[in-house]
Design brief:
This protein has 14 helices and four strands. The chain is mainly α.
Length: about 350
């Protein structure tokens, strides 16, 4: 069913398209003038952001965005589209203002978690169509740069992939969600650290019958993508047997011949860098911390124990590739960390 704009009468296939369209100066799409962004006078890209120590930030308040989030909390699920559009426009207005970047970072970190939580709640309440709609509206491959809200959206897509995998199995994970996370990783710029971190949950699609995670990771590995290793770590928690298969294939592939840069040290072979993914597998309670603001282990009472056979395969792989040459004789998986 189409969604009609009350102001101009144009019809759109999705609510996000409706929210984002431009029909004059009435801001029916949820956008904001720079003058409407409360307290935002400085800018910087999210690439330069540093997460505050206590989650959601401490500084800036945007009335339009606060109102939309309140509406979502009160059960108006459609308001999530307005909230995301307002968040994007607020960040964009901050970028247009110029300045040191402090204000941008305050807005970003103040609303990153609330927007992600609101979208997650809407998705859990109304189903995956809400999330598919948003992914389509903020396509990471549509422009030269990622949408500014990408970290929050990828966060929720990651939550959805993990939750679906643990609740219903890998076959139930939507391909659209996996393709979205992969697209974010492929299209991100070198400095899009926050967005890239939120793609690590892509590893939970390992073993999907209709989407080859390992093929996509190999394609990214050939370009030196540093998000591949932490994605493999997530894959171990999803299915350690499929993950060690993937690790053997990638580390054993000599056509992946790039290097991992290190400060004041010689560059490391990229394939050796990939072995960093097993660093924490035998460390009690040390699970990946992405997606941010989501404790998947607690939600599913999840626990992990590395199978002895899988560990043996990792050790054999290290020895077969010669990457044990600089390790101590009694090396452990912790010695494979970068």
């Amino acid at each position: 069913m189409g969604h009609e704009c009350d102001d101009c009468g144009e019809t759109f296939e999705t609510l996000s398209r409706l929210r984002l369209h431009d029909c004059g100066n009435d801001h029916s799409d949820g956008s904001l003038d720079a003058s409407e962004v409360s307290g935002v006078s400085d800018t910087a890209g999210v690439n330069d952001s540093t997460s505050p120590s206590s989650g959601g930030g401490s500084g800036r308040s945007v009335a339009e965005l606060d109102d939309s989030l309140d509406r979502v909390a009160d059960g108006d699920v459609d308001a999530i589209h307005h909230a995301i559009a307002a968040f994007e426009s607020t960040l964009s207005a901050a970028l247009d203002e110029g300045g040191s970047g402090d204000a941008y970072r305050e807005v970003f970190w103040s609303y990153y978690e609330p927007v992600a939580d609101a979208l997650d709640a809407a998705t859990r309440s109304e189903g995956r169509d809400v999330l598919d709609d948003v992914m389509d509206a903020y396509d990471p491959a549509a422009d030269d740069e990622l949408p500014l809200v990408t970290p929050a959206l990828a966060n929720v897509v990651g939550r959805y992939v993990i939750r679906t995998r643990l609740a219903d199995g890998v076959e139930a994970v939507p391909i659209t969600s996996l393709e979205y996370l992969d697209a974010v990783a492929v299209d991100a710029a070198d400095g899009d650290d926050i967005a890239l971190e939120e793609t690590h949950a892509y590893g939970w699609g390992i073993g999907h019958p209709d989407h080859s995670i390992v093929d996509r990771l190999r394609a990214r590995a050939t370009s030196g993508d540093l998000s591949v290793s932490p994605t493999l770590e997530h894959a171990f928690y999803a299915d350690q047997y499929a993950a060690v298969d993937a690790l053997e294939r990638l580390v054993g592939d000599e056509s992946i011949d790039g290097t991992f840069p290190r400060v004041n040290r010689d560059d490391m072979p990229y394939r050796r860098y990939l072995l960093d993914c097993v660093y924490d597998l035998k460390t009690d309670g040390s699970l990946p911390r992405t997606p941010r603001y989501y404790d998947w282990a607690d939600e599913f009472d999840y626990s992990f124990e590395l199978d002895e056979g899988v560990e043996r395969r990792v050790r054999d792989l290290v020895e077969e590739t010669g990457f044990d040459a600089e390790l101590p004789d009694d090396w452990t998986l912790r010695d494979l960390g970068i």
